[in-house]
Amino acid sequence: MDLKKLIRTIPDYPKEGIQFRDITPLLEHPEGLGRTVEAIVAPMRDAGIDCVAGIEARGFIIGAPVAQQLGVGFVAIRKKGKLPYTTHSVKYDLEYGSDEMEMHIDSVGAGDRVLLVDDLIATGGSACAAIDLIQQSGGKLMGASFVIDLPDLGGSRRLEAQGVPVHRLMDFEGG
Ligand code: AMP
Predict the structure, then answer these.
(1) Mean pLDDT, the chain, as a whole number?
(2) pLDDT digits (tens, 9 = 90+) for 61-84
(3) I need a surface site. Which of 4, 76, 93, 163 has the fewest CB within 10 A?
(4) Partners of 93 in the beta sheet?
(5) Burial of 10 (0-12, 13-18, 19+ CB in 10 A)
(6) Domain coordinates of the chain in residue numbers?
(7) Nearest residue CA, atom 15 of ligand 1?
(8) What pLDDT digit, counting tens, does each position of 24-64 carry?
(9) How far is CA 15 from the centre of its chain?
(10) Which residues form ligand 1's pocket by a CB distance below 6 Å?
């Protein structure tokens, strides 16, 4: 089954020049969704993962079933102001301006072996911020898994340069 065929490209969304890689057709496809989760889980089965961390919001949809399949819990990494308890926080740069991401201080324990999951890696800004949060808690990054990599934007290389193994199910050229 070619999972790439289940990704819909929307040109110039949300603004001119962006090719938006829409994963909703893949999520709506029962076999596509199942195979996506299986393909992310397979290389991590024996990695001794303690928890899966997903980045709001599409990282939740993929990350939660991955955690369930690995038999571990799911940690939510969210935009500033959404989590109710005390949080670690990190600011990160966007194309214009900056944003902030948070994680509860007790979600990841010191020495926990964490798998990070999101739908797509572009510049790697969000993934690097999430890694920062996990490391603030003393977690150990065992890998970062994405449905889609946009390698031309350099994010996966940025993670690999930090020693984080990156797994992706497919690549798309360009930004
Ligand atoms: P970045 O922080 O630059 O790696 O961007 C990754 C985040 O932005 C992911 O959570 C994606 O959901 C979203 N994103 C960035 N570029 C795209 C794109 N071309 N199509 C769909 N989502 C994107």
Answers:
(1) 97
(2) 999 999 999 999 999 999 999 999
(3) 163
(4) 98
(5) exposed
(6) 46-171
(7) 122
(8) 999 999 999 999 999 999 999 999 999 999 999 999 999 99
(9) 22
(10) 18-21, 55, 58, 118-127, 155
Query: How far is the C-alpha of 74 from the C-alpha of 54, rounded, in Å?
Result: 7
End-to-end CA distance of the chain: 25
Return the DSSP state at 107.
S
**What is residue 105's DSSP assignment?**
T
pTM (2 d.p.): 0.98
Q: Report the distance separating Cα 153 and Cα 140, nearest Å.
A: 25
In order, the DSSP letters of 9-47 are EEET-SSTT-EEEE-HHHHH-HHHHHHHHHHHHGGGTTS
Crossing angle, helix 58-70 and helix 30-41, to 10 degrees?
60
In the chain, DSSP finds a helix count (H) and a strand count (E) of 5, 9
Q: Which of 8, 16, 28, 58 is catalytic?
A: 58
Write phi, then psi, for 51 (nearest 5 degrees). Answer: -160, 160
Encoded tokens for 98: 């900056």
The CA distances from residue 151 to 46, 90, 172, in Å, are 27, 24, 7
Residue 28 has a pLDDT of 98
**173 Cα: distance to centroid of ligand 1 (angstroms):** 14
